[in-house]
Amino acid sequence: MSESVDVVIVGSGPVGSTFARVIGDARPGCRILVVEAGPRVPGVPGLHTQTMPPEDLASAQLLTQGPQSGIDQSGLRETGEAASLDPVLDQDQLVRPGLFLLGKGAKVEGEFGMAAASMSSGVGGMGIHWSGSSPRPNGTERIPFIPADELDQAYDTADRLLSVGRDLAGGDDLLRRMRSALAAEFDGDAPDASPVIMTPLAAVVDEDGTRVSGPSVILGDLAERVPGFELRAGTLARRVLIEGGTVHGVELESRATGEIYQVRSSEVVVAADALRTPQLLFASGVRPRALGHYINDHLKMTGMAVLPDAFAADDRVPAPVRPIGVVLIPFSSRVREIQGQVHPAARSIWFSGADFAGLAFYGAKELQFSDCVVFSESERDSFGMPAMTIHYTLTDRDRATIDLLESSATRAVAALDGELKSLVFAPGGSSLHYQGSTRMGAADDGESVCDSYGRVWNVHGLTVGGNNVIPTATAANPTITSVALAVRAAQKLAERLGEPEREAEPV
Ligand SMILES: Cc1cc2nc3c(=O)[nH]c(=O)nc-3n(C[C@H](O)[C@H](O)[C@H](O)COP(=O)(O)OP(=O)(O)OC[C@H]3O[C@@H](n4cnc5c(N)ncnc54)[C@H](O)[C@@H]3O)c2cc1C
Hints:
binds flavin-adenine dinucleotide; GMC_OxRtase_C; 21% strand; alpha+beta; 10 helices; FAD/NAD-bd_sf; flavoprotein; five-stranded parallel sheet; 2 domains; 22 strands; oxidoreductase; P2Ox-like; FAD/NAD(P)-binding domain
């Protein structure tokens, strides 16, 4: 081991980037090595594809498809390869640009499975493809064993890191009327129902318009301020090296040359997504009882509605001027354990159209130990890591939640006097919000993998981050929570590093 750093971070998505930023701000003299299995993509590290010129965007989408890198995945639909996992996967939107399907192992015969489970591999992770919806969880979605004020502070920092705006539309009349109509329908569901609001969106707004933010915004000018910061792309972490319950480094592989080498570090953070974080722990011999268990994603219903004239708007207004906004019907414990989003096309960053709205409704999955991702001792995936198989079933309660998703989406469209054109229950994994597979817990009782700072039980120096640490059943988009939990975990980790304390720069 000729190379030695203070901390190795595995994964360069929003969560890995948050660890790097918070540690770098607190300890600017530190050596921070971020390793990313996927390649660099055009632009500054972690730049959202939406911000790229069209040719860079196309190149970034092809580069980040892991084993399908460079292959136009629309072919998957034509060959029926995706549909063989689940007939619903025929639908165009389910093999998404920039992602690759888990494929074999995503669904076991006779189970609901996660046929649509996908990943992305490139600098910035899924955070260069995501949509930026950043609602805070409510009620039972929140993590009960983290003091509420600490959690709220972490969310405030996460909002600043991701540039989350609460009402990008300002005084836009169409969005105001749409929110009011939906509030009139849903706010009365119970006296304490979470009110209908505009979706908080991670976006940078300037004279060039509104653009989704992501890892490049989180990292900011870290590379200039922290000389010991390095982001090493095309570098797979094969194993965390652990001796006697203490981390002492990582084993890395250059994807370009196949060279395998080790880097010494007493702190390793694994933020490699909710499938590959438990995979790397498994490969490293860290196999607590809960590893891979309680995996869940949001039950998802998507649709489209034609809006009446009262909610139609001219979509030809150019983007810098056009207001942006999505109405949010939030999760409300015991009242409405789903989250609904209504995206009027005329106010969308993503699509255009004068008179229709997209619907994205998510339900909280009932958590079960039996829902799990398991890893093979002998079979390998395309990266040479332990192959995965997902076991995932629906419960009676989930079926009731699916009914609630359908009735809520129908109510939302009726409240707008719209005409529902389509409403489809998506196959497992479609939400791209896999969670819980290295969940945190208040105690090492076999039901969790780490504590509330992401510290893996009984392995000194090993921290995990990502949607995988979320322990609760949620319907809210998870990234803002994972970034908030990473802020809190990174602050704790920075305290442990040897350098003299320095005031953290405000973010
Ligand atoms: C189209 C789309 C829309 C989305 N919209 C939203 C939304 O509106 N709101 C929301 O909250 N979420 C959304 N998401 C989900 C969001 O992108 C993820 O929650 C988020 O990116 C997770 O961040 P992460 O850093 O934990 O993981 P990722 O962003 O997945 O990054 C993990 C990185 O780790 C790397 N890695 C894995 N294994 C290894 C290894 N062994 N060695 C080295 N590197 C490794 C991977 O290559 C990857 O780049 C969306 C996702 C997509 C694709």
